[in-house]
Amino acid sequence: MASLHPYGQLIRSARTGLPYAPRRTLTYTPIRLAENPNNGKNANKPENSNPESQPEQSGSALSSIKNFFFGDRKSTAPKPTVRKTAAPPKREGELSADSIFADDEAGPKLTASGRTPARRQGATPAKGGEEGEEEEGDEWRVEKRNKQYMDAVLDPNPKARIRWQRKMVVREIRHRGRLSKQEIIMRTERESLAKSVWIKTSIKKLGPLARQIAGKNIDEAIVQMQFSKKQAAKSVLEHLKHAKNTAIVRSGMGLGAAPTVNADGEEIKPPPAKPVTIISKTGEKKTITDPSSIYIAQAWVNRGPFEKGWNHRARGRIEILNKPWTSLSVLLKEEKTRIREWQDRETKELRKRKAKLWTQLPDRPVTQQNQYYSW
Question: Which long-range contacts (CB under 8 A, 24 or more apart) does 308-311 make?
Fold first, then answer.
């Protein structure tokens, strides 16, 4: 609007008694006040006391337009200076009299009014402090816990707990403290199950890769996936690396035998294990040099969700495609588990062979024969 009417601002400034507030832009500019440096000295003098020294008053629109084009040549008064207005001092408060968040700067601050945190009545200082001493670093003990309230969460059903404890005691007495074979295996052997994220492939494509790595050492399976031409082999390779790291960190697999410490505090490394040759279930011979190495005991594929797709055909037809997602799960174990399973199979086969073994009866003369039954 100011560009359309260039004289509108001049006309508004010429009016007396009408305040004018200019429009602000997006960038905020602080207000500056124009004042005469002699205001403080001549504050008590009237405005029109010396009309000769005062500049020509522009009381009308004609005089202001004249001054705009030709300038005010008669004005000899000094130009006004610009004075910046300073913001009032900031007043800050605090949480309490001894708040740790209080500032150390000097200045007016608000004091806390009302209730403030106080020391608990009847509290006793911790060890090391005497009664009557008040130090900033004193630690105060927690109130004594009520067992009745804690039992509501820790022991909600006392009868069931007593019944379970009695069952465990009876079991120990019956077995005379001996563990079952399954319990011994779970305590002495380690295993780790790792399931991959959903892979955008089908079971038909991922299944052969799972059968390829099943039964192999984890390092050998990683090498197999590195040189595989299958597109899904890259995802299987990343999952095998993640499964190996998880088994080492969480389950402590593949770390070897722990060193022993002698009386002097020195660590003694155990001697290397002797190589063991085993026969797998498929009849393949395998020599194991490190019983703590990791191998893939099982590998299977899981069916996942289906993603909808569209196949545009001729004559404007569209076919709906179901794009499958699958995942791979691997169960990792140590080689000593495979050695134990081979020994169990050999023992079972030996027992079967002994049961079927025929032994000839001793050659003794036949006596006390009778042609009639004794009954």
Answer: none
Amino acid at 263: A
Q: How far, CA to CA in Å, does 258 sit from each of 254, 266, 293, 331, 355? A: 11, 13, 14, 24, 42
Which of these ranges, 37-46, 138-147, 313-322, 359-368, has the smallest mean pLDDT?
A: 37-46
Q: CA end-to-end span of the chain, whole Å? A: 138
> What would the two tokens of residue 186 be?
């779970």
Q: How far is C-alpha 93 from the geometric centre of its chain's CA atoms?
A: 38
Bridge partner residues of 318 (DSSP): 312
Rounded to an integer, what distance in angstroms lies between the CA atom of residue 256 and that of residue 245? 15
Amino acid 343 reads: Q
Q: What is the pTM of this model?
A: 0.54
Helix 203-213 / helix 218-226 crossing angle, nearest 10 deg: 130
Q: Give tens-digit pLDDT for 196-219.
A: 999 999 999 999 999 999 999 999
Report the candidate in 12, 99, 15, 118 with the shortest Cα–Cα distance to residue 59.
Answer: 15
Note the residue count of the chain. 375
Cβ(297)–Cβ(339) under 8 Å?
Answer: no
Tell me 43's DSSP state: S
